Amino acid sequence: MFPFVCISIDIVGFSLHIWQDGLPSRDQLVKLCDAHFIEQLQISQRGTSHYVYRSPNSSTPLALIKFSEYVTLSEARMQTYVFHLLKRDASPPFKVPEVYDAWEEHSLGSIVMEYVPGLVATAADIPRIVDAVQWLLTLPPPKDGKLGPVEGGTMRHSLWRDDRGPTYESVEQMDIQFNNVLSFQQLTVNLSAEPICFYHDDISLRNFLVSGPDLHALDFEHTGFAPEWFMNYSIANPPRTSAPIVQHIVFSDSPKLQELNRATYHFKRTRTD
Prior knowledge:
Layout: H1 26-44, E1 50-54, E2 61-68, H2 73-87, E3 99-105, E4 108-113, E5 119-120, H3 126-136, H4 171-182, E6 196-200, E7 208-211, E8 214-217, E9 223-227, H5 229-236, H6 243-246, H7 257-269
Helix pairs in contact: 4-7
């Protein structure tokens, strides 16, 4: 009924469908999330996209379920990829909740992950968040060469309308699209010449959690691997919630940032679907 997430990454080597003891079936979790959404909608006139599943016997939190039309298998793959690479670091600067399961059905995605108690990060945590992002920017891309999220898929980045880009099979394909747009202004770019690196396009305090002495990164919707210009764009054009953090991030400058900003104007006015 639901497509399983099954990831095989050559750098780490793992598969994802780690069912946690005490959790009900997917169908049961979907029903619980639906009921929780309706309950919150009746109470506060707005729904919620998170549900904490607790043990029926002890009320102990066993998992956090993130669910909405914006949740995708791609996000689950990215979170799992980072989780396993963090495990290889002897002194990681942050942590990531482990993903137990993920699926999509009827345009609604769900990620079942480790429950982490804590508080949303504050301005006092910005130095630690910067360290976490700097660590992420050193991540090696998967060897399959696919752009965007691990194993490929739709790119989520603010340079496109509604933050939803296309799926690219290669950097060359990306070059063709960007240069077709820029040709009317007699400009060109060569993204194929740039190194492929990790990008994070939503570096906000709300996406980090402080639990005791540990910092946890929570949201990987707007992450992936692409030519380094993507991260340049995120740093140069941050939303208000990200600006206090990204101003401290050290990253290489892109000589073609102005040209690519012009291409973005076109992408934000058109849909990719």
